[in-house]
Amino acid sequence: DIQMTQSPSSLSASLGDSVTITCRASQSISIYLNWYQQKPGKAPTLLIYAASNLESGVPSRFSGSGSGTDFTLTISSLQPEDFATYYCQQSFSTPLYTFGQGTKLEIK
Amino acid sequence: QVQLVQSGAEVKKPGSSVKVSCKASGGTFNNNAICWVRQAPGQGLEWMGRIVPILGIANYTQRWKGRVTIVADKSTTTTYMELSSLRSEDTAMYYCATDPAGGMGTLDNWGQGTLVTVSS
Fold first, then answer.
1. What is the dihedral of CA B96, B100, B106, B109, to 10 degrees?
2. Please, which pLDDT band fits residue B28 given cuts at 50, 70 and 90?
3. Which residues of A touch B45 (CB under 8 A)?
4. Looking at A46-55, A90-99, B101-110, which range is the least confident one?
5. Helix (H, G, I), strand (E, B) or coil at B62
6. Closest partner residue to A91 among B59, B104, B111, by Cβ?
7. Which residues contact B102 (CB under 8 A, 6 or more apart)?
8. What phi and psi values does residue B37 have, to the nearest 5 degrees?
9. Which stretches within B17-85 are classed as H helix?
10. How far apart are CA B63 and CA B95, in angstroms?
11. Rounded to 5 degrees, what angle do the CA atoms A71, A72, A78 make?
12. What pLDDT is attached to residue B25?
């Protein structure tokens, strides 16, 4: 099975800051990497697909990059609504997917 | 745009089974796979399995094989996830999500979640 490792597991930042979350795959997954945001008590929502493509309606302050085994999600100019938990997910090993363990972004 | 509506919360005894439904409406059910994801309290997302309704073929991670069964009823555009031999550690929120055909394995629409509580 492909393992996905996110870092850090938690992160504190201030409004207006820029933050980067990293996701590493245990083997190459090309660009089959998606990012989700989850707020407390809600289902996750898709932010970025295929490593770097912004889902429709997602603000442009979110960006993704990477290929192979190393990927990043960057959020620039943090807004109050961005404080949430973020997950990466690999879909290279279709039909068996895996998620990273999540990164909780909190207000400093 | 497909909308997914899941069945209501369940309370089950250890050793029993639970069957959660996920009805797709507003779009084309047969063009999507439906995935099931669980989230234990305070924990991360865990992918359980996936079905392609038009084919009726389901796949599960090794961890869930033998305990999870996912089926689809094309006539009602409803997918069901049944988890057997329940234990307290199965207390979790269970989500269904669409995985569009020909896509990049993105889960682009999610149900509202179904809370399953396992308690004696």
1. -40
2. low
3. 36, 38, 44, 87, 89, 99, 102
4. B101-110
5. helix
6. B104
7. none
8. -130, 140
9. none
10. 17
11. 165
12. 86
Q: Is B50 on the interface with A (CB under 8 A)?
A: yes
Is the pLDDT assigned to residue B27 strictly greater than 70?
A: no
Please state, in angstroms and rounded to a whole number, the distance separating the CA atoms of residues B9 and A107.
32
More confident residue, A101 or B56: A101
Q: What mean pLDDT value characterizes chain A?
A: 97
Span B101-108, average pLDDT: 88
C-beta atoms of B50 and A45 within 8 A: no
Q: Is the pLDDT of residue B44 over 70?
A: yes
| CB–CB contacts below 8 A, A to B | 69
In whole angstroms, what separates CA A53 from the centre of its chain? Answer: 12
Asked if B58 contacts B69 with a C-beta cutoff of 8 angstroms, the reply is yes
Q: Which of B106, B108, B110 to mutate to test the interface with A (most CBs of A within 10 A)?
A: B106
For chain B, the maximum distance between any two Cα atoms, rounded to a whole number of angstroms, is 44
Alpha carbons A64 and A52: distance in angstroms, whole number: 4
**What residues pair up with A33 in beta bridges, in sequence order?**
A90
Does B108 touch chain A if contact means CB atoms closer than 8 Å? yes
Say yes or no: B8 contacts chain A, CB-CB below 8 A: no
Measure CB to CB from residue A34 to each of B59, B105, B112 and give the nearest one: B105
The phi and psi torsions of B88 (rounded to 5 degrees) equal -60, -30
Average pLDDT across chain B, whole number: 93
Say which amino acid occupies A72: T
